[in-house]
Design a protein that fits this description.
heterodimer; A: 319 residues; mainly alpha; ABC transporter involved in vitamin B12 uptake, BtuC; two-stranded antiparallel sheet; 2 strands; 1% strand; B: 347 residues; 2 domains; globular; transmembrane transporter activity (chain B); transmembrane (chain B)
Chain lengths: 319, 347
């Protein structure tokens, strides 16, 4: 492989792996900014992945090449509804956010496999036929050097993810909605006195995170596993939360972290084709995102500070 | 309504509601709840073999639940029991198959290695929390995956394949008496280890200065500091003891149930179920016995549901998750129970 080919190969693989992390990580940013930890994103991704594969299998002949996009939309809706469980438990019923998030994960893992076994009579679904495939960006692909790296043989999901992160940044930092969201997460009582409905904002944030996590799960399942089983989503949701922390609760920082984690993940599978990398044992690449996150949150790599009101239900009138 | 009564009533109500919701889900899915619960019951108590296996399943649940509950008492959420269990499992198995020692040394050494490995794994989030105020939830989640990948790599490096060799008999917790009375189930001496741990932890929490300090730190860090307690030290100790217990849970799997260690595609689930056990047991050592018995039995019994009733065993995972939701939403039950008791007072 020429140098240019190698760079292009590494780059699009990193972005390919990063796309589900960026969507789910963006969901994590939204909910945490409102003061609700969503440990349940792992489970939400499972629900998204399961829904997407199921939809893909049953409606591929109806929607044809549009199947994966409709599947992603359906997953988004289903996962947003599923995340309501967390919202009801932790916002209205004031349950501990970590406990209800853990329960959400258990429920998602149990429920999806239960349904898989009920529908397919075995532990995994059939293989989906309509899958996420590469395309060339018209015009841009012909630019020398940049074209082959960024615009040839790319996955459209990668660019949608980057676009989503940028839109997320604009919403959180440049709109009244974003200001309210951050206010509710930092100082809910102050927000309440300014007439913001704290619990409603939090419900919206949790459902946004559910929808985005569902998109992340749907992209992952339709890009990598093509079917759904208990091991389809194993840690991607937690890795997305890690990307959010590494990116300091900022959509763009999170995106950078997710691309880096995607890079590390892709190296562990494609690294055997690359010089130098192939000599590094896989285990270091596997644990890299997690170790870096521990360093980041410990403040060794800049300071990551969580929103102040995280993990506390808002009770009107209490101080 | 007194707090202790509430701590007993809410879990029991949650379990009943969880089973009812489970029955409704089975009905909607076109299965018969009666057949399902009968199969579950038979899977738990059907014959001597299943009873033995049920108790075996309860063993790691006791230790994992105890680990979560102990950290909770100091106000720490140890989601890392899973990872601490995995490193403990590996450490115990490693000592079990690589050393040649007489039994009275080999078993304690292997168990100790597991506990220390788990304790070390929990020390990292503990020290980060104590020194830098880092949220232990996130660190322990990351440590879970680091544990998973590192032990997998170590097993492959040592064994050259995905399963290690068997541990030597001198390290085994096998109990021939149990085998004979339970029709050769894998029930092993680990259950004694788990029960001893419950008693020891109860003693530490209720009867020692250390336990008092740990609980005080959990209630109010500022007040504890003002009273002259070393809050940071107590946080680290609490995490390490919790990790030690999780490591012991791994030891019971390594030395009792499986007698080897193999690479894992994902988490074992025991650590997360340990969270459920602790929550149901109201973070009380005796409550943990209740939680571990219930969830361990449900989990093992569920394996019989596909054969006997044609219902996927994941039904039980769904029921357990629902029970935890109900317990977590205790606030609503509390309002309900308070209203009930107020009405009575008025009369």
């Amino acid at each position: 492989m020429s140098l240019l080919d190698t760079i292009a190969f590494v780059f699009y693989n990193a972005l390919f792996y990063a796309a589900p992390l960026i969507f789910t990580g963006l969901g994590a940013v939204f909910t945490e900014r409102s003061g609700v930890t969503n440990i349940g994103l792992e489970g939400i991704m499972q629900v998204g992945a399961f829904t997407a594969i199921l939809f893909n299998l049953f409606y591929a002949d109806v929607f044809g090449s549009m199947t994966i996009w409709t599947a992603i939309l359906v997953s988004m809706v289903v996962s947003a509804i599923f995340s309501l469980l967390l919202a009801v438990a932790s916002i209205t019923f004031r349950a501990d956010q970590i406990i209800s998030g853990t329960a959400l994960n258990m429920l998602a893992a149990g429920l999806t496999i239960f349904l898989v076994k009920m529908i397919f009579g075995k532990g995994q679904t059939d293989m989906a036929t309509e899958i996420n495939s590469r395309f060339n960006v018209p015009v841009l692909k012909d630019i020398p050097v940049i074209g082959p790296i960024f615009f040839q043989n790319v996955y459209i999901t990668s660019y949608l993810a980057i676009l989503a992160a940028i839109i997320g940044w604009v919403i959180i930092y440049k709109t009244p909605f974003g200001l309210r969201l951050r206010a509710v997460g930092e100082h809910p009582m102050a927000a309440d006195t300014m007439g913001i409905n704290v619990n409603r904002m939090r419900y919206i944030a949790v459902m946004i995170s559910g929808g985005l996590g569902g998109i992340g799960g749907a992209i992952f399942a339709q890009s990598f596993s093509m079917d759904y089983s208990h091991s389809t989503i194993s840690g991607q949701g937690f890795m997305a939360i890690a990307a959010m922390i590494f990116g300091k609760w900022n959509p763009l920082g999170m995106m950078g972290a997710a691309i880096f984690f995607g890079f590390a993940q892709s190296l562990s599978t494609i690294g055997s084709n690359l010089p130098v990398i192939k000599d590094i044992p896989n285990v270091y690449l596997f644990i890299l995102p997690y170790v870096l996150t521990v360093f980041a949150i410990a403040g060794f790599i800049g300071k990551s500070v969580a929103p102040k009101a995280i993990n506390t239900p808002y009770i009107k009138g209490s101080r | 309504m007194s707090k202790s009564l509430r701590n007993v009533l809410i879990p029991i109500l949650a379990v009943i509601l969880g089973l009812i919701v489970g029955a409704i889900i089975m009905l909607i899915s076109g299965y018969s709840p009666i057949l399902g619960y009968t199969a579950l019951w038979n899977g738990i108590f059907g014959d001597l073999y299943t009873i033995g296996e049920t108790i075996r399943q309860i063993t790691p649940y006791l230790l994992a639940g105890l680990a979560v509950a102990f950290a909770f008492k100091t106000g720490l959420f140890n989601i890392g029991v899973e990872g601490q269990l995995i490193v403990g499992w590996f450490a115990a198995a490693y000592v079990g198959f690589s050393f040649e020692l007489p039994m009275y040394l080999h078993i304690p050494l292997a168990i100790l290695a597991a506990g220390l490995a788990g304790g070390l794994w929990a020390f990292v989030p503990g020290i980060l929390k104590a020194r830098l105020g880092v949220n232990e939830v996130v660190v322990t989640i990351m440590m879970n995956y680091i544990a998973l990948h590192i032990t997998n790599a170590l097993i492959r490096a040592i064994a050259g394949k995905d399963t290690s060799e068997r541990i030597h008999e001198t390290a085994s917790l096998r109990n021939t008496f149990f085998e004979e009375i339970t029709d050769y189930s894998r029930l092993h001496n680990g259950i004694f280890l788990a029960l001893i741990a419950v008693v020891v932890i109860w003693f530490i929490l209720e009867k020692t200065t250390l336990g008092f300090e740990l609980k005080a730190v959990g209630f109010n860090q500022d007040a504890s500091k003002y009273a002259g307690m070393n809050v940071k030290k107590n946080i680290v100790i609490s995490m390490v003891i919790s990790g030690f217990l999780a490591g012991l849970a791994g030891a019971t799997e390594a030395l009792g149930t499986f007698e080897y260690v193999s690479t894992k595609g994902g988490m074992t689930g025991i650590g997360f179920d340990g969270i459920a056990v602790a929550i149901l047991g109201a973070n009380n050592p005796l409550g943990v016995i209740f939680g571990a018995t219930l969830f361990g039995a449900l989990k093992y019994g569920s394996l019989n549901m596909p054969n006997e009733a044609g219902i996927p065993e994941e039904m039980v995972s769904i029921i357990i998750a629902i029970i935890i939701f109900f317990v977590a939403c205790g606030f609503i039950f509390q309002l309900f129970l308070d209203k009930l008791s107020k009405k009575k007072e008025v009369k």
